[in-house]
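Annex B, item 7. Sequence and structure tokens for protein A, then protein B.
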Amino acid sequence: MDSQNKILLEARGINKSYGKTAIIKNADFNIRSKEIIAVVGPNAGGKSTLLKILSGTIAADSGRVLFEDKELKSSADFAAHIGYIPQDNPLFEDMTVKDNLKFWTSDVKGGYKKLVDSGLIEKMGLTQYLNYKVRRLSGGLKKRVSITCVIWNSPEILILDEPGAALDVVFKEEIKNFLRLYAEGGGAVIIVSHEEGELALADRMYLMGETELRQLDKPVYAAELKELIS
């Protein structure tokens, strides 16, 4: 990673509780352009909550999230720069794949046509499924549609919660290659994952657990990672 790459997204002093249960305390985070960061930690340790705050899906109780030193306050502020793919399916189950894609591209004039012209639908292997209702699709196909809905307009930052979940081996490899190229092209990628292949993409890692977020001295895998999150 080039040390001169600018910080795109930064979180300062993030706190989040659900009722009386603290999830995140005084967390700081940053990511630069051309960087891939993995957030690791035990199940129910706050990782998904952190991603939701960084993407603007939920609000922190206190603290700030900034893009290029400008605080993001509204959902529109976040959406202008960040694409978020949650672990759970965000699609409309009783709508067709095509109608879901039209909905998710509707914020941009001519968005669906731009998506079609980009060739992304074909690249994601969705052409033959456009008229299928989402509820008929396998988990892997739903994930492909979800990813397409978010990446079509190339946001500066991609945030993905378990991107390889439900995908077959071939498409997992394609997603890894896509994320690598996305970062090399100037974007930034934040992932939560337990998969060794996806974690191997990371330039840096943060460990989230017991309400604390801390940057690790170096990326860790396998036995080292299991020891950290056990």
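Protein B:
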Amino acid sequence: MGAAYFYHITRRPMEDTLGMLLGKARQAGWRVAVRGTDLGRLAWLDERLWTAEKDGFLPHGLAGGPHDADQPILLTTGAASNGATCVMSVDGAAVSPEEVAALDRVCILFDGEDPEQLVTARAQWKPLKDASASAQYWSEESGRWEKKAET
């Protein structure tokens, strides 16, 4: 059974946190689906992941190509077609308690400065808690990531 980790982003851009988490997921050997709500935004993230000045390389692709199933990291608005064992939700993309139970990890990234994303993250937490799914809430408010709550 997996776990959902909520990341309350307040100190750096979401794409930087996403890159860090993707690197850790790949180190763990997980195939990842980055699930968003807007194809344009995912295309922008795709470009950022290729051009960001990072120490590591994050092999990935944008869903809709001929090699989706081969991508270690697939950016998508729907279900993962790459055998993902980890889903990273951005911009309020939906996840279900059943997905949390079936995957190794679900990460929900949300911008702490965006009131809509805060409301969405709270709405995502409740059904997971009600389903007795394992969930953790992490905040970078102090300048480093700290676990603030767990179910």
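Comment on protein B: Strands lie at 3-9, 32-35, 61-62, 73-76, 86-89, 105-111, 134-139, 146-150.
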